[in-house]
Every structure is written in C-alpha cells, then in structure tokens.
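Researcher: Here's the sequence for the chain we discussed earlier.
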Amino acid sequence: MIGAATSSKKDRGKGALIGAAVGGAAAGGYGYYVDTQEAKLRQTLRGTGVQVQREGDNLTLIMPGNITFPSNSADISSSFYPTLNSLVQVFKEFNKNGIDIVGHTDSTGSQQLNQDLSNRRARSVAAYLEGNGVTASRISSFGAGPSQPIASNDTASGRAQNRRVEINLRPL
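Model: Thanks. This is the structure I predict for it:
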C-alpha cells in the first residue's frame, strides 16, 4: 500500500490513509477522464447512427452494419469515413485507453464465413484507425462472428442489428 511503510507504528496508519487518498484520487482521475471522453464522443457522433454506451469506466461504441460495410463485405462504406475520421480525432486527443474492435455478424451463412467476415471487418476498422495515426499498440481487433447476438436472428430487423462493429474503450 502506498504510504504504509513509514518509520513508526503511529505514523503508519496516517501514511496508509494518505496512500489510500492518493490512490483514490488517481482512480477518480480516470473516471473524470472517461466522463470527458464520453461527452466528446456523444457530441462528435450525434446523428451518425453510432451508439455510445457506458458501463463504469468502459465505453462501448456500437456501429450498425448498415452504416459501416456493404453486405457481405469488409470494405468500409464511403459514407462511414467521416465518422471514422471523427473517431480518429477523439482517439488521438484521448489516448489513455485501449481500443478493442469487435466485428459481429448475423447467423445467415456458415459459421466459418461469418467468423472470417467479422474478423476482416474488425481488422478493416483497426487498419483505418492505425493508418490515420492512432497508436497501433492501443488497438486490438477480432471477430465474434454470430456468437454474440443483440437481437433475434429470426427477423430481418434482428439480423440487421446483429451485423455491427463495436469499439470497446478500456483503461490501459
């Protein structure tokens, strides 16, 4: 514990309290950092179709498939570049978190096809961010295929919701 290793028993408790306060301030500092980053993302992404969700100090950006990629493709839609460019600017300004990019598909088609497509889509977004100056060591990408649906694959609207890319921002 920070501050607990002092010379006398009498001072040890006081040192532990100081150490706890310093540790708490550091944790609170990251919470404030995420508050500020969340506000910036919500402002920047307003009207783009990208959802911003927060759970504790983790932010998730959900990018629906209808705005990110053409059907059965890992080529980024030209209409999505302005949104990605906005993300690049925010990720450069707020550089104290990791960026986990996860591709998702619906369950139409084979498991292997969906796994490959989700991997390629996640990698496309990662490559775009890296190619525009976001530090590569902060970024990871992988495909989840159809394994994490957020809606029923029994309807066209449900399948559309399941085709998405998520970016999870977490403390480094």
